Amino acid sequence: MSTQPNSPGNGIFDVLIVGAGISGINTAYHIQKKLPGSSYVILDTRSNIGGTWDLFKYPGIRSDTDLHTFGFSWSAWKENRAIADGESIARYLKDNAVQERIDEHILFQHRVIAARWTSSKQIWIVTTETSNGQQAEYLARFIVLGTGYYDYNEPLKANIPGLENFEGTTVHPQFWPEDMEYAGKRVVIVGSGATAITLLPNLAKQASMVTMLQRTPGYILPIDNATGNRWYHRIMPTSWSFQLDRWMFMWLAIVIFYFCRAFPSRARKMLESGVATLLPASISMDPHFKPSYKPWDQRLCFSPNGDFFEALRNGRADVATGKIRTIKGRKIVLESGQELEADILVTATGLKLVVGGGIQLTVDGRPVQLADRYTWRTSMLEDIPNLIFVTGYVNASWTLGAEVTAQLLCRLLLFMQSKGLVSATPRVSSARKLQPRLLWNLEATYVKRAAEDMPKCGDSGPWKGRTNYLLDLWRARYGSLVKNMDFAPEM
């Protein structure tokens, strides 16, 4: 066993958390508050707190949901802006970890490569590899995978014909070089998601021309990014007023999502009319801003203060729509015959989705294939004892999903302590065959490509996927803990 912070006397941690990002920090906070006598450790591959917000360095990196709900429920986001840059988010995470002394429980540069459950001892044996190549083992009763939803080490391979022929510089936003020079250069961003919408106005500040090349358009919602200036901020304590902001943004997201689902035609007209008023005369709505799918079949992209459209109006950015036929030298040739000149090609085509950070899991010597597993309360995996994985929502902020999971975990641990139980294993009843459902029900290409490797939800009971934060939070706090769950007593 390696030396670790706050090591328990018997060498076995009650909870081992993988990841020092939003999910890990939030889980640690709830464990400290609700189970103060429990021991825990956080293991992280990187050298800093922050996860995604410490990794991504591309120009303008920012949240794609509002920070009032993306921030923690126990520490209100107090800046007067809803969408914030990555550096500010990383600072917010670090400040809260230090304030709550969670940082004292973190071991950095410890990459978890394997975790094996042994029923004879009712523990997890977790193998890590440090930055200098040394391996160590940690023992834990419970594991929490706060590893996010994508591969930190490998980007999604861009399916672009002739990409290998490009004579300029190709870069993926996930691994943006610190010394990347783009001032005065022609940049083409392939993609139309949140990353592309963020990159375009920021690159346009220095590049000679930035073109967003999209195969199909997406929905973009310009928003006023200023918060914290409403009347109740002047009469209420700061902690109250920003908590009120949190609830207002939470309800706004719910209303927008269900309005789009219930009235897709009307929602489409509203979203498209909002875009039409911001476009320059040189750029037409059709085909560039006429999505072929319904609102919220894919995530909406936010443009704080309409910065995306401002870049288009300034004439230093443009949009092209169509499929790439091939690439010749520095020319990107579309099937329509249109050619785009580029010095830099940015492949903002999505992330390679991975649940559990690619950790090799075994249960009593048998390898675990995540794609074969149903998810219990979208937090535990079928036939895998004492393992929690954290995931967010497709229609709301990631942190809300992390909050639901942390509340469920702590309640489950308290229940097990009160009953003298040492393990909990979700089991699918043999009396009913579940109908599989996607873990994330989105039409995005990168989600579809990963579906066959992801765990799945069911169509009934605790196997159903999450629907909305408020309902899921109620279930986490008051729903059944014993339905479709096997428990083992202390030996």
From TrEMBL:
<dbReference type="GO" id="GO:0004497">
    <property type="term" value="F:monooxygenase activity"/>
</dbReference>
<keyword id="KW-0274">FAD</keyword>
<dbReference type="InterPro" id="IPR036188">
    <property type="entry name" value="FAD/NAD-bd_sf"/>
</dbReference>
<keyword id="KW-0285">Flavoprotein</keyword>
<keyword id="KW-0560">Oxidoreductase</keyword>
<protein>
    <recommendedName>
        <fullName>FAD-containing monooxygenase EthA</fullName>
    </recommendedName>
</protein>
<keyword id="KW-0503">Monooxygenase</keyword>
<dbReference type="InterPro" id="IPR051820">
    <property type="entry name" value="FAD-binding_MO"/>
</dbReference>
<keyword id="KW-0521">NADP</keyword>
<dbReference type="Pfam" id="PF13738">
    <property type="entry name" value="Pyr_redox_3"/>
</dbReference>
